[in-house]
Amino acid sequence: MKTMVLAVFVCMLTIINFVSANPVYFDDGQTHSINNNTYQNDTIWLDENTTNDPGTHLELLSGGKASIILPFNKSTVTINGGSLDGFNVSIDTHGDNIITINSGSLIGDVSAHNNSRIYMNGGSIINSPKGSISDIYAYDNSICVIRGGTIDGILGTADNGIIYLYGSNFQIDGQTLNHGDSLRSYATIPSGYDYFTGRITGTLQNGSALDNDFYIGALTSDDIVVVPEPATICLFAFAGLMLRRKK
User: Fold this and answer.
1) pTM exceeding the 0.70 threshold for the entire prediction
2) In the predicted model, is pLDDT for residue 70 greater than 90?
3) What's the rounded Cα separation, in Å, for the pair 225 and 184?
4) Which of 93, 88, 64 is closest to 76 using CA atoms?
5) How does pLDDT run across 83-128, given as a tens digit for each residue?
6) Contact 179, 205 (CB under 8 A)
7) Phi, psi of 183 (to 5 degrees)
8) Which of 29, 37, 178, 200 has its CA 20 to 30 A from that of 55?
9) Which run of H or of E encompasses 68?
């Protein structure tokens, strides 16, 4: 099925990266900051075979470069600038991890696995100049919360993953979405496939434009949900209060 083909394709590209990049291991439960090009050709493994409490934390800062970042075992990553700019570089979680993207540029897929979280507030996920597409995925009961930034590729979910989109003016094929709507209700399932698909447009909470294809697995409880901005929630609450007073 198409969903599985996409996942396999992503894994194959990641394997290519493992072969071409040097491994660097951080597994001490400490915070490590990258603000230069020392690790620009490296795959960085966080707590691969170690469970720390709290987990190891990696910060990518302005001027920092790396190839691939792989958090394991409740380790965390914050992107506050810098870039991942090798061949189809990626951030790929492997269990109860948290990734926060505030700024910076990432060429390659960003994906959450095994009850992990991605919070995207800014930054850019950019297609590779060599032709590979850069997507954001929520797999295996993971959640992606997108409030800002730009994504060149698709938004995808599989195996009970969920993506929440915060913003306004969301539409699919010219049809306006109501806040809290599930994209499954507006998407289509191509004949012979096991996923919902469509294209969503809108404005994210930080003002960034959203205009992306999406895929939602149809065999499990995957979903992509649009969420109102805080101001909109307040307006709804105020309207409800006034209605009760009139009654």
Assistant:
1) yes
2) yes
3) 9
4) 93
5) 987 545 578 888 899 999 999 999 889 999 999 999 999 999 998 7
6) no
7) -70, -20
8) 37
9) strand 65-71
Q: What is the mean pLDDT of the chain?
A: 85
Other Cβ atoms within 10 Å of 195 Cβ, number: 23
**Three-class secondary structure of residue 231 per DSSP:** helix
| Residue 212 half-sphere exposure toward CB, CA atoms < 13 A | 28
Q: List, in sequence order, the alpha helices (H) in the chain.
A: 2-20, 230-246
Cα 37 to Cα 23, 43, 67, 84, 85: the distances in Å are 15, 13, 10, 10, 11
Rounded distance, CA 150 to CA 135, Å? 11
Distance CA 83, CA 140 (A): 27
**What is the per-residue burial (b if ≥16 Cβ within 10 Å, else e) of 106-123?**
bbbbbbbbeebbbbbbbb
Distance CA 60, CA 66 (A): 8
Cα–Cα distance measured from residue 36 to residue 206, given in angstroms and rounded to the nearest whole number: 28
6 has a pLDDT exceeding 60: no
Q: What angle do CA 190, 3, 137 make, to 5 degrees?
A: 120
Helix, strand, coil distribution of the chain in percent, nearest 5: 15, 45, 40
Give pLDDT, residue 128: 79
Q: What digits encode the pLDDT tens for the residues 138-189?
A: 999 999 999 999 999 999 999 999 999 999 999 998 899 998 999 999 999 9
C-beta of residue 82 within 8 angstroms of C-beta of residue 39: no
